[in-house]
Structure formats: C-alpha cells, structure tokens
Amino acid sequence: MQGHSPPGAGACAGSAWATDGAVGNADEGRALSSGALTRALPPGDAGLARNMALAQAPLPLLRAELHDKILTEPLKHADFFNIKELFSLKTLFDARVHLGHKRGCRHRFMEPYIFGTRLEQDIIDLDQTVKHLQLALNFTAHMAYRKGIILFVSRNRQFTHLIEKMALNCEEYAHTRYFKGGLLTNAPVQFGPSVRLPDLMVFFHTLNNVFEPHVAVRDAAKMNIPTVGIVDTNCNPCLISYPIPGNDDSPDSIKLFCHLFETTIKRAKAKRKQMEFLYSQQSKQMAHKTEDTYQQPPSPAHLET
Fold it and tell me: What does the entry give for GO biological process (predicted)?
C-alpha cells in the first residue's frame, strides 16, 4: 500500500515548484521532475524536500487493512488451497464411492447424479462427484480459513468414533447422537442470547438411523446455515448447499471423506497462520522503512544549488 500526500498541500506545492522550474528553464521547454526538483531546492528548503520524499514513502498497513487483505487474498484464486491435488477419480473408485442403493430405493432428485444401474444397484457418476467434492472442500477450506465454526453431523452409530476423532484432530465440533428438534432454531432460548451457531454444517449422512431426513438439515436451512452433505441415491439433495453424490454406507468411503475434510481444514488453518505471518512481516518492514526515512538527515545532494 503506497502512502500519498493530502490532496491539497502536496499537489499545490508540487505545481508551484514545477511552475518556477518551467519559468527558469523555459529554453529547455520542460518541467522539473521530482528528482530534479529535490536537487534544485535552495539550502533553506531542505526540510521541504525531505517532507516530499516522505510523502512518497510506503506507509505500514493498519490492523484493519491487514485483516482485510488477509481475508480477501484467497478469493482472488480459483484453487487457493490446492484442493484438486488431494484426490482423483481413481481414489474415489477405490474407496467404493460410486456404489449406490438398490434401484427401488432411488430418490427422484438423485437421478441426474446416477451413471447407470447394474444388477439392480444404482451406480453414481464419479465425474460429477469429483466436481461437487472439489466445490464442497473449497468452501469448507475458506470457512476454516476465516475461523468459522464447523460442525460435523452424523447419525450412523458405525462411524461415530471415526467422525468424532476426525473433528477432534482438526479442532472442530461433531454431533453424532440424537439431534433434538429446535437445537438450532431455539438456541437463544435454550442456551442464552449470546450463543453462536455453527458457520458450516457437514453431514456425513443426511438421513437418520430410521432412514428419515435428518432434522438438522431442515433446521440449518431455516437458520440460513450453509451445509455440505454426502448424498446417496436414496437421499434428497435439495436442502443441501453443497451436495456430494457418493456412498455414505461403506467404511472405506467414509474414511476417505473424513481424511479429505480433515486435511482440507488443517491446510486452511495452516495457510491462515502463514498469511498472517507474511503480511505482518511486510507491515513491519514498511514501518521500519518509514522510520528510517523520518530519521535520515538531509543528504548533501539536497543542499546543492
């Protein structure tokens, strides 16, 4: 960030000296540049020359400007956290992400994500899974980068320990027990007016243990909380902000999804620390340069006539 002099004083002073120089050097037919202007100043105006040099020196970033720069920089890149290198289509295939439910259990809103049917079992289109998974992981990374609260939700007892351990490793939250209705919509009454709701909810299963839509999906939509969810062929993806077509029953697929979310969140938090350190160092260097410019005495070149 470059520092500039006030619109009035600096511009007027510069125009006045340029006018004098143009009159004194009319035969040359040019106005004095900033460097020539500094050398042409009389000895008594050395302080003015130093002030003009200070006006062109960079100023250190303020705390608010530094915070805004850290937050807006990742939005300028399509893949700031290198999400695409975390997995491939073969990785999803080896983890059995493509296996869906029987054709009789198919939800009609999942038909665009189904590649075909084999032996009465739906096969999920992994090309679409790759695209949607990259979008979901990228959104999760940006949320973790901005220090948002991420809540992992599941109702499958088989993966309770795995999901809770993953949430603990990436320093986030998990809810794998019975989800009471109104936990989000009635939170100010139950927990007080200062309670903070999650900034993102990640569903490893959008159905509960009796294959009914999870009540948290509906409550999150009511409270305008963005959601990421793994949707199998028997799920309704409409209320999920970032649906991921995939198998939500296989241990291999759930382990892969847990690994991807954990790696993504850790990478985003490490990137946040790296960016804070980088911009703080740049701000300190700019501050030191400004202090050195203020403390530097007028050079002999300023005293030339």
Answer: translation
d(CA 152, CA 140): 11
> In this structure, which long-range contacts are made by residues 131-134, counting pairs with CB atoms below 8 Å and at least 24 apart in sequence?
132/242, 132/243, 132/244, 132/245, 133/87, 133/92, 133/244, 133/246, 133/260, 134/83, 134/84
Contact residues for 240 (Cβ-Cβ < 8 A; gap 6+): 203, 206, 217, 227, 228, 229, 231
In whole angstroms, give the CA distance from residue 299 to residue 50: 9
Structural domain range at position 227: 87-269
pTM of the model: 0.73
Residue-level pLDDT, tens digit, the chain, 305 residues: 444 444 444 444 443 334 344 344 444 443 434 444 444 445 555 555 555 554 454 445 566 777 777 888 888 888 999 999 999 999 999 999 999 999 999 999 999 999 999 999 999 999 999 999 999 999 999 999 999 999 999 999 999 999 999 999 999 999 999 998 889 999 999 998 889 999 999 999 999 888 889 999 999 999 999 999 999 999 999 999 999 999 999 999 999 999 999 999 999 999 999 988 887 787 777 776 666 665 555 555 554 54
Sheet strand arrangement including 242-245? 173-175, 150-153, 200-203, 227-231, 242-245
In a domain, 262, yes or no: yes
CB 152 within 8 A of CB 144: no
- Helix H or strand E encompassing 8: none
